[in-house]
Amino acid sequence: MSESGHTFAYAFKTEHLTRSFAGFKAVNDITLEIPSGGVRTIIGPNGAGKTTFFNLLSGLLPPSSGRVLFEDRDITGLDPYQRARLGIARSFQITNIFGKLSVYENVRLAVQSLYDGKANFLLPSGRMGDLHGKAVAILDDIGLSPAAEALAENLSHGDQRRLEIGLVLARDPAILMLDEPTAGMSPTETHATVELIQRISPGRTIMLVEHDIDVVMSISTTITVMQTGQILAVGTPEEIRDNEAVQRAYLGGLA
Amino acid sequence: MPAAALNARLVLHQVGDQIINGLTLGMLYILVALGLNIILGLMGVVNFSHGSFFMLGAYVAHDLQPHLGFWPAIFFAALVIGVFGMLFESSLIRPLYRRLPEYTLLLTYGAALIFEQFVRWKWGDISLPSQTPSYLAGSITLGSFEVPLYKDVFLVGITILILIGVWLLINKTNVGMIIRAGTRDAEMVRILGVNMPLMFTLVFGIGSFMAGLAGALAAPVYAIIPTLASQWIILTFVIVIVGGIGSFWGAVVGGLIIGMVQSMVELIPNLGPTMIDLSGFMIMAIILLIRPRGIFGVEGLFE
Amino acid sequence: MMKAPPAAKWWIDLGLIAAAFAILPFLMPGGSLDLNPFTGHRLPFHAGFVDLATTILAFSLLALGFNLLFGHSGELSFGHAMFFAIGAYVSALFSKGFNVTGTLCGVGIGSLQLHHDAVNNLWISLILSLGLAALSAWLLARLIVPRSSGIYYAMITLASAQVIYFLAFHCSELSGGEDGVQGVARPSLPGFPVDWLSQSGGLHMYLFAALITFVAVAFNYWVVRSPFGSVLHALRENRQRARFLGYDANKYRVNAFVLSALFPALGGWLWTYFQQAINPDAGSVDYSGRVVMMSLLGGIHSFVGPMIGAFVYWDIQNSASQVTRFWPAAPGAVFVVFVLAAPEGINGLVESLRTALRRRSFNETARETEDAGGEVLP
Question: Chains B, C: CB contacts under 8 A, how many?
Fold first, then answer.
């Protein structure tokens, strides 16, 4: 598990974080602390700015203004690869894997990234410790060992999503950001994924964007509700369920 | 008159001439680059054959002139190239939309090789004779400058009229609205029920029409030879990079800058010939350093 | 616990390539070739098949370098001939020496001279060619890699190559301008007679080129199979994912660009000693485009594809140029057909044929096994 995971009171802190697209403020002046550990879920109606907020935290987008702090360190200007090396990993709404490479090669590449900048990559991979062993362990963990030699693009949708979780696990990240991990999954696949998330959550912070309200209520430690680029409410699942403003804005909107 | 003053007047005169030359060259660059940029912006197609369409416009106009007269030949040559572009797009480029945009560059590169040999076969290797009618061959006197009538008055004037027309088309019509929206998000426009394949073909035709028109207009002024296509297409790429991919004003400003600079550096003693060929690339390098998406470019388009 | 995937048998692959190099001079078509395939002119020395084979080797190097980017990293460089030209001009000028006084392409430079006994400096010229190509590739990559990708990258590399072409064209005091550098002496190899490379109607030159090319091919093979090569494949498949896994994508892209420039530079170096002359065309769009065509014709997603493509391209060009002076349309037309109908090239066609055959035999086996009431797979 991550060594730094528990020494800080918060995983992420944002200060006046704002991102606008052609004048439209998708994320509008969010100042928020996301506590360390547990499953921290973000919900909100479509267009609330959840994914944009994720993109700002993980470095896919630069903010228009404001700062992002990770464990007391300002990471606002860091590239995604630098954030990944600090222990921030994420998956995407649209499955993001190496389609034309084998499942094994996908995971092996994820493990190999630990040695980027430390080993000469023109030398054989044997000099980088047990890449193979670590890759196999992850494949077992996500239950894809039988499909190791298949091309990633030929996996079922559910297996592709699980493969992506496997990829982001390779660095043993302190923060794992999952953008709609169960989207498009069958009930069985959803159940397996929820189990996987619960199994990997100890010792790290899991951040979720999720639409499946049953999933949200069953695994979240806290829930953050977003609306029109701002934070509407933060609380435990019970508090959120009983929050009138949330019911009006979000649950009411669903019905 | 003292020698220094005479010298100063001479330099001033040369500078004035080069400004006029640069304006004309810039106008043709704008026409070619705008056509390429509209296609690139909407469809993500890098049309290497665009230079060939420019060249073919010149040759077709040359062949039509004895039958149709000067101005109708220019218009119909552009029309022929526009229609040809639409056929080209719907038969050869359309099958590639599912693939990486790089493949459109590859295909149109191969096609440009064929067009160049076709022109050599049909019209030969030597440049076309100029066929400006006599009433356009003269000059008008502006102060102490002799301004060639066709090259610097008609050509510049017509280009400006065409630019206004294209601007109105893009900004004030439904077709233009779809083009502008499609440049940002082709998927969304498709969802809204627009027939995108038809729109692509139409836009490709408009872009090709402009290349053909530029070629037909250039034929009386510049030496038209089969290798012209590859020279122009690379400069056009440079203009688009400098101005910004997919931008109307990018093509306009980029074309003017490159035309003017190429024209002005000719005056540098000794270095002139080298600088004409290299200045465009130098500007491109500077733009990449200070504004990687080009002067009017938008981040993230076609990457 | 599952086993590691079986290691590819590298000695078989490289052995086959070595065998192909050994028989290449005998594979050449068109028995009466004594025309320079570039110009259509009668060759100054008696050549025949062997010289075409040497040409193919030099262009294989160009294509291999190009494909390290397009095939392996997924980035289209449309200007790779610039490194071929750099390698060729550096070795030509170093071997011949030069003496420029006064101005160089219009700039006053005082005096620039190099006089020496060039014949014995083969390896120094090799290091200079590769070094200068690597340096210019690194500078260019530092400029364009962080600022462009996709078609933008293709357009910028295409335009950048024109700078080298125009410099060679205009700086005639040094480069010989349009005529280029001519009369470059073939070097003597240590332990061989002085003019050994020029003996046996080009065969010795071919053998030398084959040895050099083979070493480069082996190096290229090593690169694409190394962990570095795996990262390039990851960048090709999904650059965003690679970045979010912690890979410094731009660092890899710059390094790949520099590595990919070494092969054309080596090809240019060979080319100079082979042709004993070099002109600005070596850096032209025409040459860059040929390399693109070769790689795609052979198959960009296979290691040997670019080399097969070089062979096929020269076969087409050579045959067409004997029939018509409009021959460039022939490779152009073949290329257009491949882009449309067979983007995986000859290698892809062979692969799909093999898959089809395997499926047929698999189906037959399956039917037989079904009849026997057994199972096909464990």
Answer: 130
